[in-house]
Amino acid sequence: xxxxxxxxxxxRGKIASGNLFRxxxxxxxxxxxxxxxxxxxxxxxxxxxxxxxxxxHNGVNLGE
Length: 64
What we know:
Blueprint: H1 3-31, E1 35-44, E2 47-57, E3 60-61
Antiparallel strand pairs: 1-2, 2-3
């Protein structure tokens, strides 16, 4: 099999695993009463970034 195809398949598998873990963590946090948003764009001192999870509790952003 072509090396580039193998690398692409491997990368897609890692992305899928990471997304599954992110979604499971988000579900667990929601079950504890947190408000959770996935794939949120935020401006940082290093430029714009996408956060996997943005977690809130009682109106307070827990990541800032």
